[in-house]
Recover the amino acids of this structure.
């Protein structure tokens, strides 16, 4: 029974947001403002759960996602769930943030060798993430994005297809070819 209540609540939220959004697109400024306000609250909670280690980034990311929703509103297909479209945009913004941060971390060198002595055991995992980020940056988007979303982020093939605009088959092929290309690069570096 709780699952049914949860599903009904999600359905009610979807209907409310979609109604406000469509009225906003039709020129109702108050409805559009209410849509953005309610959406901002939902995105804030969604991103706060995913950025627990980076709480200062949440508000900037919410604003980026709201701007992207506004700028891309003409691409939304009213036959599809609005929340799936919005959360796909938010996930893209989240991945962009994490990619930017990983690149910034790659450019930051320790100030002296003493930091190596003071490092904890997480440094090996961090180095592995940097190495993977460097390798992934060498791949084209059609291979890199499916690997990041499916293998690293844990999204389903269907979610990844929806996010990237690729077919599910193309996502599967992208993962396969991308992993194969990464393995070949690693073998050639050894």
């Amino acid at each position: 029974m709780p699952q049914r209540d949860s599903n009904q609540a999600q359905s009610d939220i979807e209907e409310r947001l979609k109604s406000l959004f469509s009225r906003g697109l039709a020129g109702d400024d108050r409805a559009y403002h209410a849509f953005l306000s309610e959406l901002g609250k939902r995105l804030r909670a969604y991103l706060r759960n995913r950025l627990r280690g980076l709480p200062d980034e949440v508000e900037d990311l919410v604003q980026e996602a709201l701007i992207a929703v506004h700028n891309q509103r003409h691409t939304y297909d009213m036959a599809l769930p609005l929340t799936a479209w919005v959360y796909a945009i938010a996930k893209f913004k989240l991945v962009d943030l994490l990619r930017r941060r990983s690149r910034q971390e790659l450019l930051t060198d320790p100030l002296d060798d003493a930091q190596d002595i003071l490092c904890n055991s997480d440094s090996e995992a961090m180095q592995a993430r940097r190495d993977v980020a460097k390798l992934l940056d060498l791949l084209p988007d059609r291979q890199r994005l499916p690997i990041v979303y499916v293998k690293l982020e844990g999204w389903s093939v269907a979610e990844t297809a929806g996010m990237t605009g690729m077919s599910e088959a193309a996502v599967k092929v992208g993962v396969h070819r991308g992993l194969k290309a990464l393995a070949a690069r690693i073998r050639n570096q050894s």
Remarks:
- The mean pLDDT is 82.
- The chain has nine helices and no strands.
- Residues 82-107 form the longest helix (26 residues).
